[in-house]
Amino acid sequence: MMSVAVWASDTDRAGRALTAAHDAVERVDSLLQRHAAVAAIDSLRRAMRQRTGVAIVTDSIAPGYALDRAALALGAVDSALLDVGGQYVWIGRATHRAVGIPDPDNTLRTIATVDLRGGSIRTAGRRNAPRAAVRSVTVLAPGALAASAWAFVFLSWGCDRAIAEPQGFGVVCADSAGVRVTTDLRNRVSLPPPPATPAPAP
After folding, report:
1. Is the pTM of this model over 0.70?
2. For 100-117, what is each residue's pLDDT tens digit?
3. To 5 degrees, how large is the angle CA 152–CA 154–CA 158?
4. Domain ranges (residues) in the chain
């Protein structure tokens, strides 16, 4: 399900925007039964496979499609924050919102925090990843569908290639080498402090 927070100077306009956003999406699973949604997602999947060699699973990008639809339906609001399944889209003036990147093995912990200033942020993770494999990839992109698709691709590619070939998107990638970021995010990502070392027994 989608959650939406809207800021507007006119409360009636804000209410109409919220209704329009929810009507545009309803439930993600019912949205995917519509021909237009299936056609748009299948077209993107084909294009991405041809471009990257990665076969994207429909369920991994459906929330991005839903968020982009909802964002279009909002109309002229001052700003809005939309969320489906932990993927966010910020609409409006540039902002500074700290978004935690969850540890895929324990979602109560974060492996990093990124400063979201606009657009969408999507994290794709792999639980209990083998030591050499990528654990988590977070993509910041102007649109939600693009963020969803590229997070899935970069998770398949691995951190070395995701950071070296970011395709114009901000990327935060975690693997056995640690957390790495693309150049444009170096001043926008913070890592949690290392765990405290217990004091030696007296």
Report:
1. yes
2. 999 998 888 999 999 999
3. 125
4. 2-190
